[in-house]
Write a structure and sequence with these properties.
two-stranded antiparallel ribbon, single chain, 41% helix, elongated, 2 domains, alpha+beta
Length: 207
Amino acid sequence: MKRYVMENSERMLSTLLSHIPGVVYRCKNDPDWTMEYVSDGVRDLTGYPIEEFVNNRIRSFGSIIVPEDRHHAFAEIRKALDVRQPYIIEYRIAMASGDPKWVADRGSWTFSADNEIIAREGFLVDITRRKEAEEAVKQREEQFRTLIENLSEVIVLYNEEGRRTYVSPTITSILGYSVEEYFSQELRENVHPDDLIQAKADDSYIK
């Protein structure tokens, strides 16, 4: 009866984990991410079946991490271990199809009574769409920056509080100020005294 209850509980746990949109894992604390347990979601995440990863039967999970990310990822895990803190890292994996995918890896450790590491336990989730969106924003920002830095005018950006957040490098060639000098001055210092009254009327940011 006890064995039946245990097996039934394991099936229920496995079913529950299979419905989580991500991958639950338990692995050795090594650069290979040697999996002792990995949930069904690993097939959707990587394109490989569970059996290929468990105990590195065919491949290790670490082997599908993009090489230039692998060293950095494990270094961050070691840093977190040094201070006994959970880790949150992001890296790319190569799927079975050969396509890259970004994952977020959140984990921590289990220790023995003697404070020896037993295993790493964590959760993997696909963050490719978020990374692609961030890259798209970065590219648009670079395009905008390139555009305004090549104009023959001075571009100044303000936030909602009226604080200057950006001035184009053309400030130097047109007004003779460095960017640092411009930000260190009050706006009124950049306006000729004869035009100050009109400038205040036109621009509420000038005090």
